[in-house]
Structure formats: structure tokens, C-alpha cells
Amino acid sequence: MNKRKILALSLLSMLAISVMPSALAFQIREAQVFTPQNEVGVEFLSVRVSTIEHPQGGKLKDMLSGVNERIIFRANDSTPGIEVLKEKINKGLLEAGSPARVKEVKEVIYNVALQDDGMKVTMQQSLTLKLLLTGIVIQEAVYEQPAIIDLNWRGFKVNEQVPITLNADGTTVNMDINTMRGYLEVKYPEVVSLLSRDSKFSEMLNDPLINYERIRELPITQWHKLINALQSMAEAEKWGVKEPAPAVTVVSAGEGSLREGQHPPRVLSAQATIDGSTYYMTIQDPPISATLDIYYWAEPIRDEHGDAARVYLTEPQGQLQQSSTGNFPLMVLLAFAGMMGAIAGFVIWRANRK
User: Fold this and answer.
1) What is the spatial distance between Cα 156 and Cα 178, in angstroms, rounded to a whole number?
2) Each residue's pLDDT tens digit, 136-145
3) Do residues 128 and 44 lie in contact, with contact meaning Cβ atoms separated by under 8 Å?
4) From CA 132, how far away is CA 42, in angstroms rounded?
5) Is 0.90 topped by the overall pTM?
6) What does 335-354 look like in DSSP terms, one character per residue?
């Protein structure tokens, strides 16, 4: 393949990567923010891939040789012990500077897969938390003055273990859902005992899965914003809100831009020699991605409280920046995307002629 064709394919690949979202990158899959109801329905997703390489074999390989399993655990607001989860999240919200509290745990889905391929053990975890939060309004709307709502809730962390009763195919088990240690301790306690003999490994086993602090590290004023007057109320109805809103302000992060910057994955790694065998442990969390649907007209702000938004319940006249990414108008961005597509097409045409 000649250089011109390679250049054309490279340019197309860059364009595709720039617009293709990662299926595993979501930390806030959705958030429906209802200012008049003083509530937000939010679905958090934590995804983690952990590997332990055992190139020299050793006791770990003997303990997990040939293992290949996957299990899905579920819980909700009626599950025994769910109050523990609520208390831990409320504590995390308070530490994040948010007045919000958990009103209801709609659903918890904890997915774990464990596999040994002869050279390494791979553990994949995903945790979905569907929560209804209340207490987000800091200042009520008065006449034409906007309400002010808290947005610090999007970046909380739970540092402790969260043991709750989970159900998997009719079988119940009490398990910590916040760490790598939780599942291993229930299924393979001898593995936990072995790895905990190294302090760094022990620390990584306890690293919390419920950790959305990286979302809060990006100021809300640097998130992309678009006001949508045509959005359906179908998503709101899932959270029990049927009152129509004349507009929805969509605020998102994770796409990457000059204003927002790129978001690398979070990676932890360590090496230890235990009983004469050397092991290498790596934990990787994907880059951040989040989307908030704030019903009515909203303007993200930062103040002494932290991250917040002004929410206008009647359409403001010229008081909002109509922008989708930073302060670049949406039509300018679309025109730029069209120009890039035209350039790619021209390069391919020239390459084919040669």
C-alpha cells in the first residue's frame, strides 16, 4: 500500500476515533436532573479490569488454575442490608460537599468475571448503581430568578467496604461490592490470604470501585453544553416524573477537546515476590465519561459551594451562553466536522488516482 493510501486510512481512523464513544467509559451513564422535584435520577457505572501475572507459576497459579467463571448479582431498595449502601453513599456525598442524599436505590447490578489463561489471572468487574437522590436544590427559584442546584454529587467516593446481601440465580450471598477483595474473599479466601502478604497488593485489593472523584476533577464549567428543546420525556418518566419540561440542558464530559482536555485511564500497578514466585498486579479503570440532562434552561457555574448550576424555569432572554462545547456554537462545530470529512474524501480520491 503506497504512502498516500496509508495517509488516507490514518486520517479516516483519526476521524472515527474522535467520534466513536467507548462502551466501557461511562461513569455516569445517565442523570435526569429535576429541579422542581428537588431530585436527580442517576445511573453510575464503574468498570474495572484487574490482572495478576504469574509467569513463574507459584501458589496463585495452583489456586486458580483453569478458573473461568462469570456471575451477575442484583439488589434493590428492598434487599436486606441495602441501608448500609445508602449510609456509605450519603457519607461520600457529604465528603464531596454535596447536600444530596439517597432517597431510593432503584437497582444494583454487580457483574464479575474471573479467568486464568495459564500466564495470568484476569478479573473484570462492573457495578451499576441506579439511585434516586434528593436535596439537590440550594436556592429555590423566585419569580424570574433561577434556582441554584448542587452538582458536587456527581463526584463522590466510598472508601469503605460495602457488604450487602446479593442475589444471583436464586442464591443469596453477603458480599462487599466495593473492592476486588470482596468477591475473592467469598470464593477464594486462600487467594486473598496469599496476596495480602504484600502491603501494596493488599492496598490494591482494597481500592474502591465506587469512586467518581475523577469526574469532579473536571470543573463543570468546562463540560460541553447544549440546550435541547425537543427532548422526549420518556427518560424522565422512568424516574416517576411526568410533568413536561419545555427544554432540557444536556451537559457532558469525556469526549475530549482543547478546552476539556484528554482523559487517560486510571492505572495502578505493583510487583511482589511471595514464597519465591514473582507476581505482577495491574488495575485499570477507563477514562471518564458522563452526561447530565438538566430539565429546563441551565447554566453551569462554580462558586464557593463548588460545582452548581443556575436553572431557569422560564426561558431567559439572552442570559445563557448557547454553546455545545466550550463557547463554540454547534453550527461552527458541525461545519468543522464537514470540512474534515471533505478533506478525508479528497485525500482518498487523490490516493486512488495515484
Assistant:
1) 13
2) 999 999 888 9
3) yes
4) 6
5) no
6) HHHHHHHHHHHHHHHHHHH-
